[in-house]
Design brief:
Layout (H helix, E strand, L loop, with lengths): L3 H26 L5 H21 L5 H35 L5 H33 L1 H23 L7
Helix pairs in contact: 3-4, 4-5
Length: 164
């Protein structure tokens, strides 16, 4: 019985150590995206975002027609949110480190509201996509749009430098 007590005490710690090391192991074994490929995707997105999205979906002609109708409306609203984000970044860069407490509070509020609006937009259009192209492809649409948003956020984030 005495031999088991120390073992019982250390097992949870060993389990915790293993769990904490898993993200590190996963990060080391997962290569980052190829920079040339990411740049090629950026260029395609700038010229024809809808074509990039469609390329990643498996749709027949009827589904494509339904998708196009829903995507046009989605794209219009998403474009407005993207313009808002760009305006926020330009304002932030122009102000630099000269924000007052009230300005910083408003900037934080605006940033969080915009993030919520992007999520709300995806939630609004997901059921419409399910109806137009089916659950599986609507899920794939969410995956593709999420990656596009992440890439856009990454690009915008690097327009305002971090302090060194």
């Amino acid at each position: 019985m005495l031999v088991r007590k120390p073992l019982l005490r250390t097992l949870p710690l060993l389990g915790l150590a293993l769990c904490l090391s898993l993200p590190t192991l996963a990060a080391e074994s997962t290569p980052g995206p190829d920079a040339a490929r990411v740049q090629a995707v950026r260029e395609k997105l700038r010229t024809d975002r809808k074509a990039v999205v469609l390329h990643n979906l498996k749709l027949d002609a009827a589904q494509t027609a339904k998708f196009n109708a829903v995507y046009e409306a989605y794209s219009k609203e998403a474009g407005e949110l993207a313009r808002q984000r760009t305006r926020m970044v330009v304002e932030s860069v122009n102000q630099g480190d000269r924000l007052t407490g009230a300005q910083a509070k408003q900037a934080s509020k605006d940033s969080l509201a915009l993030a919520e609006a992007e999520l709300k937009l995806l939630r609004k259009y997901h059921p419409k996509m399910v109806k137009a192209i089916g659950q599986e492809e609507a899920n794939r649409f969410l995956e593709v749009e999420t990656k596009i948003l992440a890439l856009n956020h990454y690009d915008i984030a690097w327009t305002s430098p971090l302090s060194e």
